[in-house]
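Kindly review this protein for my students:
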Amino acid sequence: MRRTPPQVSKLASTTRRPQRASRTEDPKSSTTGRKITKPVKSIACLRIPNFPWQVEIMRKPELAEHSAIVVGKTLDLAEDMMSMPPGSSANSKTDNSLSARVVLAASPDLTDVMPGMPLAEAAARHRRVLVIEADTPLYALVFDEIIENLERLVPDIEAASPGLAYVGIWGLEGLYGNDAQIVRLLAGAVDGFDLRIGVGDNKWVAYAASLLSRSNSGRKVTGEPGRFLDKFPVDSLPIPYQLIKRLHAFGLTTIGHIANIPRGPMEAQFGKIGGTAWELAKGIDNRPLLPKRSVLGVSEHLDFPDPTASMATIVPAIESLLGRAYGRSQLARRFARQASIQSQVFQHAPWTMRVAFKDPAGNKNQALFAIKSKLDIVDIPGPLEDIRLTLSGITGEAGRQESMWKEVKRDTDLQETISQLRSRLRIAPPIYQVKELEPWSRIPERRYALVQMSAGSDSSEVEKVG
């Protein structure tokens, strides 16, 4: 029996004859012109293939001439698509292998290298391939800027992982027009990247539709999801790489093969994740859209003329960045709770350091004191090529309650100063207080004593004085 071909429509800008599919393709999108009579909560998937690789190409265009892979220690796509917490894949052994060193992205010419593949396997297939250490903070920062641009156009956006986002496009017809116009609008907001857009009734179907989309265009699934997914390879499923290899070993090479098997045997052989894969093969995905609240932050960047590991150069650079950050209007009369420093390290993986302020910092001096204290106890892996400073957790309040009594406030400030000095010096600061012991004694040495002050501790070292 011959199956009906997948019902997938291209999204275009105009639809004059609903009964015929328009063949006019827009540079941003294309459509069939099928008239939708039943309101459906459509979801658009915005996918930037090999997002880490595209970011690296933007930073170093000369990499386009080489075959390269971007490697990291984690793979979040499968966990996000499967709604699984980190470390809850098919089994712990698989998680350990994935979390060691896996491929996050690859240059387009490496068609047999896929995300999640262990680095050892990828290197065995391509011995002369260029290996690039993943700059995770940079990828997140670039993608945050993309999400900020999209938030100006649509309200419901879920940033699933760098390079992957879901947008709720229901209710936007009156504002922007039909789905084709919405897709064109979304594509225009993501400038400089190879963007693929898919539209469907749920996240998984929208993601699968984006796999068939052309660059900066959209595809919409209008028919039965099971028929649409029938011929997709199992490699398209957002599941761990080791499980994909097991499916191939059982002869399950397409999603249609999985859909033809009852759910029970799938779960019996592959566990809970096998049942989830079966649901996806049927086009079932009940995950809701979870828009994430945007976190206000201020970021500043500085490039060193030459790589340096000298604190005499790094600390003034951080101070300069803090001055520029606190001079921004976003931090006027406001406080930051955390600072993050990201740097490219010469011939080494990128380095990241986060500093949580005990009290929200309202100026560069307070923030610099905490950052310098952290720098004293960390090891920089090598010469830094640049520094990107990000202040986050912006609040309008300092979050500290002062006492109305002058004596209590004075003691509190003194204890805070001692605590900061102890953190910076990593020893008890040499601060003493004169206290009475036996003022009636005829021996002067017994009358008073020097007591070393220690923040947050009742114990003190006493030294008698005359």
Residues 297-392 form a domain with the Dna Ligase; domain 1 fold (CATH 3.30.1490.100). The CA atoms of residues 15 and 33 lie 5 Å apart. The longest strand covers residues 297-308. The chain has three domains: 1-294, 297-392, 406-417+426-465.
